[in-house]
Write a structure and sequence with these properties.
single chain, about 160 residues, alpha+beta, four-stranded antiparallel β-sheet, two-stranded antiparallel sheet, 3 helices
Length: about 160
């Protein structure tokens, strides 16, 4: 009888292990620097100041080494604002604080993939909005040709949240 109780306890513990390892389906996830790979370019994510994450409506999480790679990946996949549940960028000023990418501001910076923009929380005369940054980093070969979105198929989301 004792062995049955022990077996049940072990089964319960083992059954709960997968739950303990699951990422939340909201908010940014931990990044394993030096191990996680950028969804767009396939390079290892190594600089915490420029890491970016996108969570789609299906709750899948996608990691990038540069916000420019995320913008181009979204456009190349013809994603529209409704497809995107969350879009996170690391504050390039400290490399520790996640910001909503669509509400963040962007300043010129030397970035892993040379798109040239690092996110910051506060607007200054030297910063641009998400929409302005997006326009500058979007590469024509990644522009979506699908008529899904009202603006010709390109991923778009205003910085104001409207």
């Amino acid at each position: 009888m004792r062995w049955l109780a022990s077996a049940l306890e072990i089964s319960l513990i083992l059954g709960m292990l997968p739950l303990a390892g699951c990422d939340s389906d909201t908010g940014p996830a931990d990044v394993k620097f030096g191990r996680d790979v950028c969804e767009m370019c396939g390079m290892i994510i190594s600089d915490p100041r420029f890491v970016t994450e996108v969570r789609l409506g299906d709750r899948s999480l996608h990691k990038f080494d540069d916000v420019g790679d995320a913008v181009n990946w979204l456009s190349a996949g013809c994603k529209v604002a409704d497809d995107i549940k969350e879009f996170w960028v690391m504050d390039s000023a400290n490399g520790k604080t996640w910001l909503d990418a669509r509400r963040a501001f962007y300043r010129h910076a030397e970035t892993p993939m040379n798109y040239g923009f690092g996110a910051v929380a506060t607007q200054t005369p030297e910063t641009v909005t998400f929409a302005e940054m997006r326009e500058q980093v979007l590469r024509p070969q990644n522009a979506c040709k699908s008529p899904r979105a009202a603006d010709g198929g390109h991923y778009h989301h205003s910085n104001t949240g409207h």
